[in-house]
């Protein structure tokens, strides 16, 4: 069985109610409720937690094994670097607007090294949240991202952005280290990528 196909739920058995009440989803739904109402009062927190429990109980989601373990310090570095990228890109986009000159944009193709859907989603989200780049298409069959990139007027700028995207993927993989049974060696990964590319034609 390929690493991507291994999941904790087959889709044939409904997830049990008690397993649906997991700490992290409950905390996330509670925070989302607080953010929507814009108030962190005790009553709002309690009500948000109650809503999170009700949603998780009546609409349980299947457990999904992401095939990775979280490493604390690489995760901190990933978040810190991401915030730095957002601030830096915000300044760069502002300068592009203030210069008031013709701007050439480009659609950049990035073939990720990982064959994980989780990594594909995470990297795509992080690149989109950085000002100046937007994911136009995420091709799951080949784990390829197509991004619209601002102020990219030559091949050197394209390669620079592609290198930055690969750096984001590398930091993401360090923060969410694949479990041994989910790791794929380089030759196997290259063969899988070639097969996916052939299937997409």
From TrEMBL:
Taxon lineage: Bacteria, Bacillati, Actinomycetota, Actinomycetes, Propionibacteriales
Protein name (record): Na+/H+ antiporter subunit E
Record carries keyword Transcription: no
Keywords attached to this entry: Cell membrane, Membrane, Transmembrane, Transmembrane helix
Principal location listed in the UniProt entry: membrane
TM segment ranges: 21-39, 45-63, 75-98, 118-136
Similarity field: Belongs to the CPA3 antiporters (TC 2.A.63) subunit E family.
Record's bilayer topology term: Multi-pass membrane protein
Record bears the keyword Repressor: no
Cell location: Cell membrane
InterPro entries: Cation_antiport_E
UniProt xrefs under NCBIfam families: PRK08965.1-5 (NF006521)
Recorded superkingdom: Bacteria
């Amino acid at each position: 069985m390929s690493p991507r196909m291994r999941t904790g739920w087959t889709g044939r058995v409904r997830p049990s109610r008690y397993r649906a009440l997991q700490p992290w989803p409950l905390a996330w739904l509670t925070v989302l409720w607080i953010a929507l109402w814009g108030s962190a009062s005790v009553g709002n927190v309690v009500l948000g937690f109650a809503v999170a429990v009700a949603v998780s109980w009546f609409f349980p989601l299947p457990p999904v094994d992401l095939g990775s373990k979280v490493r604390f310090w690489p995760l901190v570095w990933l978040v810190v670097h991401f915030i730095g990228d957002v601030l830096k890109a915000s300044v760069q986009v502002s300068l592009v607007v203030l210069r008031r000159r013709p701007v050439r944009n480009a659609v950049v193709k990035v073939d990720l090294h990982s064959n994980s859907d989780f990594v594909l989603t995470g990297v795509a989200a992080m690149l989109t949240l950085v000002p100046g780049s937007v994911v136009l298409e995420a091709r799951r069959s080949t784990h390829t991202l197509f991004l619209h990139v601002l102020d990219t007027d030559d091949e050197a700028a394209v390669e620079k952005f592609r290198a930055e995207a690969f750096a984001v993927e590398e930091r993401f993989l360090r923060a969410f280290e694949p479990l041994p049974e989910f790791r794929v060696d380089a030759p196997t990964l290259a063969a899988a990528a070639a097969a996916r590319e052939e299937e997409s034609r």
